[in-house]
Amino acid sequence: MYPRISRRQSFKLGAGALGAMTGAAALTACGSDAGGGDGISLWNFFGPDPEGSEVSTWFETLATDWNESHDVQLDLRYIPNQTYMDGTTLQTAFTSGEGPDLFVISPGDFLRFGNGGALMDLAEYVPEELRADFTPGNLEARSDGEAIYAIPFDAEPLAMFYSVEAFEEAGLSEGDLPETWDQFLDIADKLTTDTRFGALVEPAPGYYQNFTWYPFVWQSGSEFFDDSGNPTFDTPGVHGALQLWQDLVNNGLSPRQAQGTGANEVNANLGAGTVAMQQSGIWGVAQMAQNAPDVEYGVFHLPIPEGGERATDVGGWAIAANADGKNPEAAAEFIMWAYGSSEPEQIDRLVGWNAGAKSNLPTRQSVIDAANEKDSYSEGALQYFVDEVYPTGRPEPRFPPEVYKPISDALQACMLNGEDPASAAGRAQEQLESFMSGYNGLSIEY
Amino acid sequence: MSATTSRRTQEARAAWAFLSPDLIGLGLFIVLPIVLAFGMAFMSVSGFGAVRFAGVDNFLRLLSDNKLPKALIVTFSYAILAVPLSYVVGLGLALLLEGKVRGGGLVRTMVFIPYVLSLVVVALIWQFMLVDKTGVVPTLLRGVNLGHISWLGDPQFALLTVVGITVWSQAGYQMLLFLGGLGGIPKDFYDAASIDGAGWWRRLTSITLPMLRPTSFFILLTSAMACITGVQAFDLIFMLTRGGPADATLTMPFYIYEQAFTYNDLGYASALTLVLVAILMVAVIATFALTKGARFHEGD
């Protein structure tokens, strides 16, 4: 027999349950403060990573050093890459007015946040000598007129990685590295086996796929906008670049689905032996060194169309401050301390980021000089990226979502659904024209 | 005040006290968002705090949105395929594992485990197993010349693959519900039918299925909702395909997500949500009308 509960007892129980729920909700609300009281928060996808990594350690050390030398304390918040790039966490925080004081931002997201008024103008904190220290294009890509909305801290050119073992198995050598698109398709075909794709370009839709495809358009002299800002997407250059990616997939040379998080992970694809050539960025050098040190690989330029010119895309991350942050002064001070300082200790720290924890190119000449003094880029794949690839690079376009998405749709339709490139490009051109006719945000070109 | 009135008042207070946690939860997390979504559908909301009244602009935009029909077709195709398949598999498993079957407990547990897993984990497992050329599934299928198929990267197969994964993850839960329903059917019915010479198929169609109608109604309704608006239609898609390849798995929840979090257009995302809710309401009302309020037994 169950014990009897009186009505008075049951009323108390009900009230207790209600109180517990309310209390729990209140506690949850307390924990959602992104700013962490008087401190400043920095959201990123590098650290502190529970699984640990060199980039995570670098960020954690940065935060510790700041906190030991400043009254305003910095709170790092780690958000996994996939969620950070295309997820809701950052966006939801801004929507609810609880955005972080500081956050890492890519060119692909720059106008989304910029046009939303979420980026603080840092111009008054950036002295002339620091502006002059940035290598061409890097600061401009985060500026609009006189305003500076983010400080870039690394530059990431794209190239093609190749597996030496796969080449040898196919009876190929370094002398067979493809120069043109036709050669690329031919060599990829020779490298394709039952268990390996000859090449890998990013198949998944998203900002990253667009970023990696843009250089193939530039190589034939085409642009996405003319000098007056009108879309120029329905051109032979775009058709050719779409056709190339379609041929790679239709001929079974490049997968429709990549390993790991995608073609941005060199170690998970080329390093695992599932592809023989892989388009990726300079960060792949660190990935291979840290995760697949025994795999022999090389790097070569992105192939170009017959008669085309070398071109690659230079991405890179920047740090921005929330225009409505709780402590904008401290946020700007942190940015300048961490990424704009000329103190030798801080320059060394940036060398450690760019040529150590995460292989990139620095965005400041003083950091490049310091890295060169240490011979950080004097050999192997990094040297090739610095000496050969980077000079052919252009900063990643900062397209707003309404520009990025029609391009993404056209690329997906051609690459994975076999649509005629001219038809897909024409449809995207109409969408771009329609959007641009009413666009009045920050300038897309710079 | 009479003793009876006082007692009723006390009972009412106790009832409200017990109900209030649920009512507050429903109010905060269901009713309030619905009201807000309704209001936001008439606004232009940027996602960064800028709000202005937009009248019916968002609804007019629905008419010229080329992707909306595609998203609706994908969503309902997904539901039309996944709901009956899950139902048949769940029921089949329940019929096989009903009663005392040797090793039945172990099999029931194994079949139920996928349902306990987070859909994110389910997606990661299958993504790993299906990856082009070197995944477990393509490797196994290479022997029958099907190893070249890209299950998640080919528009012809992507939605079917997502349906298959949905069935795999949901069938265990439905099996459990069916086992409960089967346990409630009096054994006398089967005994009488056997005496009358009814075979397995006749017993299934004349006793089991009719007696399972309340369970079936609950399963079909809730799984249809889950496929159209629930976590399956978003979590699985977000993790497995991001709506691709070439929009082949662009479900309405994912399309609404894109509008809200890629384009920052919360107003239009709300209008899309209302369209989906309206369609569902019509479907649910029709279902309840056809089943007379989900009453399946005479005298109800």
Would you kindly provide a written description of the structure presented here, covering whatever features stand out?
The complex is a heterodimer of chains A (446) and B (300). Chain A has helices at residues 7-30, 54-69, 81-86, 89-95, 107-115, 128-133, 164-169, 181-191, 207-218, 236-250, 266-269, 283-291, 328-340, 344-357, 365-373, 380-389, 401-417, 421-436; strands at residues 40-44, 74-78, 102-105, 143-144, 147-148, 151-152, 156-163, 197-200, 275-281, 297-300, 312-315, 318-321, 393-395. Chain A is an alpha/beta fold. Chain A folds into two domains: 40-155 and 316-391, D-Maltodextrin-Binding Protein, domain 2 (3-Layer(aba) Sandwich), CATH 3.40.190; 157-313 and 399-436, D-Maltodextrin-Binding Protein, domain 2 (3-Layer(aba) Sandwich). In chain A, strands 7, 8, 9, 10, 11 and 13 form a six-stranded mixed beta sheet that branches. The radius of gyration of chain A is 24 Å and the shape is globular. In chain A, 49% of the residues are buried. Chain B has two domains: 3-40, no CATH class; 64-290, MetI-like (MetI-like fold), CATH 1.10.3720.10. Chain B is mainly α and 300 residues long. In chain B, helix 2 packs across helix 13 (266-290), helix 3 runs antiparallel to helix 10 and helix 7 (155-183) packs antiparallel against helix 10 (213-228). A two-stranded antiparallel ribbon of chain B has the order 1-2. The longest helix of chain B has 38 residues, at 3-40. Chain B starts with a helix and ends in a 10-residue tail after the last helix. Classes of the chains: A alpha/beta (446), B mainly alpha (300).
Quickly give the CATH architecture of the largest domain in chain A. Answer: 3-Layer(aba) Sandwich
Average pLDDT confidence of chain B is: 90
Determine Rg of chain B (CA atoms, Å). Answer: 24 Å
Quote the beta fraction of chain B. Answer: under 5%
- Number of folding domains of chain A? 2
